[in-house]
Amino acid sequence: MSISYGKLNVAINLDHIIHNYRLLGEHGRGLIPVIKSDAYGHGLVPVAKALAGQGVDRLAVGTIEEAVTLREQGQFRGVIMALLGANDCQEAEEAWRHRIMPMVFCLWQLDLLQQAGLAYSSRLPVAIKIETGMSRLGFSLAETDHLAGRLPGLDRLELAALASHLASADDPSARDQVMDQAERFRQVAAKFRAAGFNPALCLANSAAILAYPDLLLDWQRPGIALYGANPFHGTRLEHLGAGLKPAMTVRAPLLQIQSLPKGARISYNGTFTCPADMTVGIVAAGYADAYSRALSNKASMLLRGHRAPVLGRVCMQLTALDLTGVPEARPGDMACLLGQDGDLVITPEQMAAWWGTIPYEVFCLLGLNRRAYAGGDVSSR
Ligand SMILES: *Cc1c(COP(=O)(O)O)cnc(C)c1O
After folding, report:
1. CA distances (Å), 69 to each of 48, 62, 77, 136, 276, in order?
2. Is 212 a catalytic residue?
3. Nearest Cα to 138, choosing from 170, 181, 79?
4. What's the 205 CA to ligand 1 centre distance in angstroms?
5. 211/173 Cα distance (integer angstroms)
6. Which end of the chain has a smaller Cβ tally under 10 Å, C or N?
7. Rounded-to-integer distance, Cα 216 and Cα 276, Å
């Protein structure tokens, strides 16, 4: 695949995703890689294919639409869990047609799937989502009391899994909350077992896989760690994610270099004033490329072995850099906005700190740009 160097571009190293998958596999079995939101900006189909090449036979996406894409364009034949369930008749029909396992969070969805299934003679595996403390989607503990009683009447559906999602597994000081959620989840699982069901249990996200071996149940759902961000960055558990390798590198070309006199004000509203004569480079990246305006006067980029600070406001398609210490810089050079460049690196955690967000959002947004791939099983792309 050719890279266009004319504007901001994103390089995805699928071998790093494979490395991270294997590293997580050393902690627990039954991994269901989460590739929702276009694999956190890394590309739904390429990431799915790279993982399938490693023998992965279960994946989790967000929407039914993503699941259908995975079946049709990714030719993925394994289990696809859709974390957002099936929310209208059409999604329920698609779930049946493509054998997608929706993670169901209310009775209404179960009825929808039962109705859509009347035309079929088989049964559709569904996962049931339990609300244990995140206060987001899921059946409340009270609702689960009569849920087991309702399931036999939904004869087109098969309870394949029970799932819940942890709110604070990445916060080492929140151990009690994590344990409370896990305890509620176990209670619900016991109720279903007592009612004669034997669903797979699925709780852990990336952070829990790394930090809570006791919470490794039948299936685990790693997301962010697959893409190489450390959920414990900056905490006392940082070492747990130390071997993860970020898979996304972002680069953009340097368009012009100019010498500015002391006192020159840079970019909109002149929020940076040159304290001395400076060499300033203009890079073809801006907030329209999801290089956030929040990075104004905060971020750095890497160029020819130097760290060059961003000067002034990030514009729609342009950003100014301090190249005073980089006399060898030339127009056409590629600045590295995120990732490794020679001996230097801008980690997703560093970028997130400048940006005022988390690596998840950095990946999802920068990943909206044109992407090129390296590694993985290239022949299968
Ligand atoms: C996104 C998501 C995950 C993955 O979480 P990470 O923190 O990225 O590992 C797991 N389960 C559910 C329900 C999710 O929405």
Report:
1. 11, 12, 12, 26, 54
2. no
3. 181
4. 5
5. 12
6. N
7. 57
Tell me how far apart the alpha carbons of residues 296 and 300 are, in angstroms, rounded to a whole number.
10
> Out of 120, 245, 268, 298, which one is annotated catalytic?
268
> What kind and span of H or E run contains 344?
strand 344-346
Which atom of ligand 1 lies nearest, measured to the CA of 221? Answer: 10
Q: How far apart, in Å, are the Cα atoms of 184 and each of 113, 178, 179, 354?
A: 27, 10, 9, 37
List pocket residues of ligand 1, CB cut-off 6 Å. Answer: 34, 36, 83, 165, 205-206, 221-224
CA dist., res. 320 & res. 226, Å (int)? 32
Question: Pick from 84, 78, 375, 116: which is nearest to 247 by CA?
Answer: 375
Query: Of ligand 1's atoms, which has the minimum distance to the CA of residue 360?
Result: 8
Instruction: Express each pLDDT in 25-72 by its tens digit.
Output: 999 999 999 999 999 999 999 999 999 999 999 999 999 999 999 999
Would you call 373 a catalytic residue per the annotation?
A: no
Separation of CA 204 and ligand 1 centre (Å): 8
Strands 157-163 and 124-129: parallel
Query: How does pLDDT run across 101-122, given as a tens digit for each residue?
Result: 999 999 999 999 999 999 999 9
